[in-house]
Design brief:
Chain A: It is a multi-pass membrane protein. The complex is a heterodimer of chains A (368) and B (395). Chain A is mostly helical. Chain A is built from 13 helices and two strands; from the N terminus they run H-H-H-H-H-H-H-H-H-H-E-E-H-H-H. Chain A has one domain: Amino acid/polyamine transporter I, CATH 1.20.1740. In chain B, strands 1, 2, 3, 4, 5, 6, 7, 8 and 9 form a nine-stranded mixed β-sheet that branches. The chains are: A mainly alpha (368), B alpha/beta (395). At the A-B interface, helix 4 and helix 10 of A face helix 1, helix 8 and helix 12 of B.
């Protein structure tokens, strides 16, 4: 096996939570509000369905093909030729998505550090992630565990500080335009939830695999609650204006003012976001590296860490000239890519493996 | 080992984030800014810049009270077609990098407010430096005159305006509030008006003149009229923003005035729509203390206290009705945001009516329900300074 580290189910939850939330926290509320308006707090509930589905598929596949990631599983299920083909697209997707995440992070940072070139901001993050990836899954899990409180606690503090400025009547009228818009708005966040499928790359290295399901469910529920809360709070502070804000949570932090001196907390949000982005980029990076190594049947994945990092930096610039393109990709390409690769393809593979298994079994009954 | 050292040094260089460092002594910290109309479709952007040297020099040099006399701020201005352009021209007049992060007050001249504020607000919310919680004001005359005044109590006019906003004497409108108002259902906004800075230059003027003089009423982003300070109080009651006030009432058939200080107030707008008839119930709950009793009534008697409560109730109602009359009949602008209340309660009907809201709003019938509770009489029971035998214990 390429990876000798061991992680626990709890650690995998601590990796997955920032992965889902770091994207959702940057633009989530405004993206969901575009369709759902003041009912956007309902949207995460629909979106989380894809998370549960992805979790179920990853767990089922892992039960059938223990100690294998989706790259190897696809070869087992669909045969070497088709399996290799699917694996290639997976690795390409990870590279593409990771490049996009790095770009999104860099754009956010560049808003404040506008003199720093984007390439420096993105390579600094990729470089730090490269160290973690070289350390393997155990290092990633432990760093996620250390960073977890830094990601969660500031958000809770922020909510406490903004409480006095909330205007809860902004939520009315509930379901003004019916349920349909809230479901339409779920298209984007369902993509984030489906990232739970990355568990496929963590399950083979989990020491207590029996708890994996519980950890996954708790993670999805935690993300669901956090998303509902952040949607509600931005709605209560900014009302309909939320839709026009590119970084609503950050704008909310900027609005905090307690006792005339506890204010201007946006740097806090930035720090939290750097932590979240680090975990997210590191896992996607790791998955790309591990997937490539498994696809090429390498005996060690460490030599390809830096080359993949270099590619990631390139992918963060290729085809993305400006922030409006980032927004377009974020709402039109990414959700569907994630849905196809994290729910649809693995789901079909699972179906295929169940069918072949059944056929083999009936055959067995026939002959014997 | 060598490789490790190399990695660590590369990391130190990249991750430390020194690329965008800014030294405080390279910054010109702006405390307030004003936008006024200039000739040829241009605007005048004026900024009040904090002078750190004045603060340090005062303490180190003369020491004590003498040092405080110097000005702590200075004013610069520049013209341009919009704020961003004016800033780049302004930068040529200031040796340090302009920094907006501490700007807590934005003042708009009366003329430019009548022309429309939307263009200028865009800069303030788009640029990452200006603060969401900065307060907006409209100045009578030109805003830049206010920036040049040296206040006696605070460091700068910016600081005093911010303190006024915190006191809630008039409206207090932040950048976020204004943005929310512009995109709200009623498409109306209100911004407090301050006195023309030219009239506040001399010390003797400052002694007698109030700074806050009322509220500007904007339809969309254009100023169309204003409320006096008296009418503003009514608006604060309606918008549930009232928190400090003294209500002085004269009781029927009783000599003298009683003043009541509301401690807690809550206003709720309850819309009602029946057979195409729009009406609004304004529900006010308030409780407060007696602060001055100029009558001969003993307010420890519940029935006499009830008299005062009734009078206060009538006074609050009169104030709100006076303001609503101006808003509904003269200005025809819904700054109380009745529109949002109707949207929340009657979403379907609102969908049909929102195009004609300007016609509907003036015809809305207003009902009021006001609960006044006077909890405490202060430190004394019977009126002070009146002989015991003259005190009335009943009507």
């Amino acid at each position: 096996m390429l990876e000798k580290g061991k992680i626990t189910a709890t650690q995998s939850g601590m990796i997955l939570y920032p992965i889902i939330m770091s994207t959702a926290m940057i633009a989530g509320p405004s993206l969901m509000m575009k369709h759902a308006m003041q009912d956007m707090w309902i949207t995460p509930i629909w979106a989380s369905c894809s998370g549960f589905l992805a979790l179920f598929i990853a767990k089922q596949l892992n039960q059938r093909y223990v100690n294998m990631t989706i790259i190897e599983q696809s070869q087992q299920i669909a045969g070497t030729f088709w399996g290799k083909g699917i694996g290639f697209f997976y690795v390409l997707l990870f590279l593409q998505i990771n490049g996009f995440i790095v770009r999104e992070y860099a754009e956010f940072i560049a808003l404040f550090l506008n003199g720093t070139p984007l390439s420096i901001v993105s390579s600094a993050l990729v470089l730090v992630s490269a160290f973690a990836v070289r350390g393997g899954v155990e290092v990633i899990a432990r760093s996620a565990q250390i960073f977890f409180p830094f990601f969660v606690v500031p958000f809770l503090i922020m909510i406490l500080l903004i409480l006095k400025d909330l205007e809860p009547q902004n939520i009315l009228p509930i379901l003004d335009n019916g349920l349909l818009p809230t479901i339409r708005a779920a298209v984007i966040p369902q993509g984030w939830f489906s990232e739970v499928f990355l568990l496929s790359f963590l399950l083979p290295y989990m020491s207590d695999r029996t708890n994996a399901k519980k950890a996954g469910v708790v993670t999805i529920l935690a993300c669901l609650v956090t998303m509902i809360v952040s949607n509600l709070i931005t709605l209560f502070v900014f009302g309909d204006v939320t839709m026009t804000l590119l970084f609503p949570i950050m704008d909310m932090a900027r609005y905090i003012s307690v006792a005339d001196f506890f204010e201007n907390l946006e740097s806090g949000v930035m720090a939290v976001w750097v932590v979240g982005a680090f975990v997210k980029v590191t896992l996607f990076y790791y998955v790309t590296v591990l997937g490539t190594a498994q696809w090429l049947n390498l005996s060690n994945f460490r030599p390809i860490v830096l080359p993949v990092g270099w590619l990631t930096i390139l992918f963060c610039f290729w085809g993305i000239p400006d922030f409006s393109t980032v927004g377009e990709i974020n709402s039109f390409a990414i959700p569907f890519l994630l849905m196809i690769f994290f729910v649809f393809i693995p789901g079909s593979l699972l179906l295929l493996s169940t069918l072949t298994e059944k056929r083999n079994r009936t055959k067995g009954v026939d002959t014997g | 080992m060598k490789v490790k050292c190399l990695w660590i040094s590369i990391c130190c260089l990249l991750v430390a984030g020194c690329w965008d460092r800014t030294e405080v002594n390279d910054l010109a910290i702006i405390t307030a800014a004003s936008v006024d109309k200039a000739k040829n479709e241009e605007i005048t952007l004026s900024v009040q810049i904090f002078l750190p040297r004045a603060l340090g020099g005062g303490a180190g040099g003369a020491g004590g009270t003498g040092g405080g006399q110097g000005k702590l701020t200075t004013m610069r201005n520049s013209n341009g077609p919009n704020i961003a352009d004016a800033i780049s021209k302004l930068q040529a007049k200031i040796p340090r990098q302009i920094f907006w992060g501490h700007c807590k007050v934005y003042i708009f001249g009366e003329e430019i407010a009548k022309q429309g504020l939307a263009d200028h607000i865009d800069f303030l919310v788009r640029h990452p430096e200006p603060r969401n919680r900065a307060y907006l004001y409209i100045s009578k005359g030109e805003g830049l005159d206010t920036l040049d005044i040296t206040p006696s109590l605070e460091r700068s006019t910016a600081e005093s305006l911010r303190e006024y906003a915190d006191l809630h004497i008039g409206m207090a409108v932040t950048l976020v509030d204004f943005r929310n108002m512009l995109r709200g259902e009623s498409e109306a906004a209100a911004i407090p008006i301050i006195e023309n800075g030219k009239k506040l230059q001399k010390p003797e003027d400052i002694q007698v003149k109030a700074v806050m003089v009322g509220t500007a009423i904007l339809k969309r982003d254009k100023m169309i009229g204003s409320l006096t300070l008296h009418e503003t109080r009514g608006l604060l009651w309606l918008r549930n923003e009232m928190n400090k006030a003294a209500i002085s009432v004269q009781l029927n058939g009783v000599e003298g005035i009683v003043s009541v200080n509301p401690i807690r107030t809550k206003t709720k707008l309850i819309p009602h729509l029946e057979n195409g008839k729009w009406s609004m119930l304004v529900h006010v709950d308030t409780e407060g203390d007696v602060v001055e009793n100029g009558t001969r009534l003993n307010l420890m008697k519940p029935e006499l206290l009830a008299l005062v409560q009734n009078a206060v109730r009538a006074d609050i109602e009169a104030r709100m009705r006076m303001t609503l009359k101006v808003l509904q009949q003269e200005l025809q602008t819904d700054v109380v945001n009745f529109a949002a209340a109707f949207h929340r309660e009657y979403p379907k009907e609102w969908e049909k009516a929102k195009g004609q809201w300007e016609k509907i709003f003036p015809q809305i019938e207003i009902h009021t329900q006001i609960n006044v509770n006077i909890r405490r009489p202060g430190l004394i029971s019977v009126p002070a300074g009146v002989p015991q035998e003259e005190i009335k214990n009943d009507e």
